[in-house]
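Thread amino acids onto this structure.
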């Protein structure tokens, strides 16, 4: 009787514990509310809000495939002194991928911009020209102040592929740009290290631009503190009927 009573008591206790556990309801966690990507139209088309922030981001890019034909064309793409002559093929294919990230947000000091763009170049998987990666631009801009690696105002030239108003136009620079709509003015301090044959090269560049209707005028000047030499350029552009007339003059 004692053993039977103990067994019955144990069974009752186990039943009570099981009943207590069964009484606790299993509550599934509610899913987090989904945050859809919102369009940001404050800075133009193509921007969207980064989820959880008030920063707007635009991602853009392109793919370029190029074919060239001519005597020893594949070898002409690269400098033979640097690459030792790669091929005597009379045709050559070249591909490029370009991607850019442009992030903007409003601050009490103006628009804060972070911009990065890179090129990925591919020629032939068996030579030194394959998979060359080039940082095209990388800079921070707050209002009119801009710092980083970006194109100088000398990069702006005549429409087309044959003009040569500047051959080295990208530097690590610090610049200030005033934009009054139809009138712009700016000044930049450029690092010429690696561009100038002298060490510690510093360049100073200034620009004044004006636009009235279909006519635009730029006056640009630069000075190399190491070489103690400078250059001045004027560029006039006017919309005439179906085309655009451009005239440039340079003193150096």
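Threaded sequence (252 positions):
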């Amino acid at each position: 009787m004692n053993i039977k009573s103990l067994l019955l008591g144990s069974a009752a206790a186990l039943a009570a514990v099981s009943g207590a556990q069964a009484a606790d309801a299993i509550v599934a966690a509610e899913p987090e509310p989904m945050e859809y990507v919102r369009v940001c139209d404050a800075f133009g088309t193509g921007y969207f809000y980064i989820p959880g922030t008030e920063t707007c981001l635009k991602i853009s890019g392109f793919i370029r495939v190029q074919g060239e034909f001519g005597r020893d064309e594949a070898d002409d793409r690269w400098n033979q002194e640097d690459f030792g002559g790669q091929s005597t093929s009379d045709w050559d294919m070249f591909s490029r991928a370009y991607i850019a990230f442009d992030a903007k947000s409003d601050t009490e000091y103006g628009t804060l911009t972070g911009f990065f763009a890179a090129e990925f170049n591919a020629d032939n998987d068996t030579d030194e020209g394959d998979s060359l990666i080039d940082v095209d631009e990388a800079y921070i801009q707050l209002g009119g102040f801009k710092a980083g690696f970006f194109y100088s105002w000398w990069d702006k030239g005549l429409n087309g592929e044959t003009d040569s108003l500047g051959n080295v136009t990208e530097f690590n620079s610090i610049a200030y740009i005033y934009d009054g709509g139809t009138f712009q003015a700016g000044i930049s301090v450029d690092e010429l290290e690696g561009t100038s044959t002298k060490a510690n090269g510093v360049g100073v560049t200034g620009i004044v631009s004006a636009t009235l209707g279909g006519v635009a005028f730029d006056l640009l000047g630069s000075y190399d503190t190491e070489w103690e030499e400078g250059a001045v350029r004027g560029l006039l552009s006017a919309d005439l009927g179906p085309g655009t007339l451009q005239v440039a003059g340079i003193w150096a």
